[in-house]
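Example 9 (inverse folding). The structure is encoded as follows.
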């Protein structure tokens, strides 16, 4: 189990989290946090950091390794919805390709975002030559990923791993920065 968790730290996801640590602020949710290491990097600027995961071993690991008061680790399935919020930033790093009902997941992300909040999502680029994941429900090319996100968010910007504009359709991974600029309807 420990080796599987450490491989995550050595992966490209670490590079993404390392860039995002300079951007996320205030109240942050990390959907599918894996080891919790990305949340640890967020600690530099975020005040309250919530991590949601469906893997209970990952939750136990993160709780043991990162026992900080401002970290909140818990079971959370974004397809079924998460009760907490609103969050200023929501991140989902290399998770969406593992979710069968991707559009429902994105609609539920929007529900937990604050008005003016930011959602940052990454996914492997299916056009690149990286090793394909056997446990992926689907993989996206940049245009497909953008089209999916635009069904839920008005403002979508595709980026590369260092958050520069995506100019090459083969860059891997694809990051999307989405803004929630409209008020979220309140249920009665």
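The amino acid assigned to each position is listed next.
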């Amino acid at each position: 189990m420990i080796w599987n968790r450490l491989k995550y730290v050595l992966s490209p996801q670490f590079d993404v989290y390392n860039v995002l640590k300079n951007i996320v602020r205030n109240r942050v949710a990390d959907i599918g946090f894996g080891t919790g290491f990305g949340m640890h990097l967020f600690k530099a600027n975020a005040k309250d950091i919530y991590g949601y995961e469906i893997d209970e071993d990952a939750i136990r690991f993160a709780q043991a390794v990162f026992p900080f008061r401002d970290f909140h680790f818990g079971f959370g399935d974004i397809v079924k919805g998460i009760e907490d919020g609103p969050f200023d930033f929501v991140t989902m790093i290399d998770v969406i390709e593992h979710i069968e009902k991707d559009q429902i997941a994105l609609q539920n992300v929007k529900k937990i975002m604050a008005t003016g909040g930011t959602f940052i999502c990454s996914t492997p680029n299916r056009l690149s030559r990286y090793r394909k994941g056997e446990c992926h429900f689907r993989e996206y090319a940049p245009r497909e990923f953008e089209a999916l996100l635009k069904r839920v968010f008005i403002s979508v910007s595709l980026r590369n791993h260092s958050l520069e504009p995506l100019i090459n359709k083969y860059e891997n991974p694809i990051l999307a920065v989405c803004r929630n600029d409209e008020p979220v309807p309140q249920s009665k």
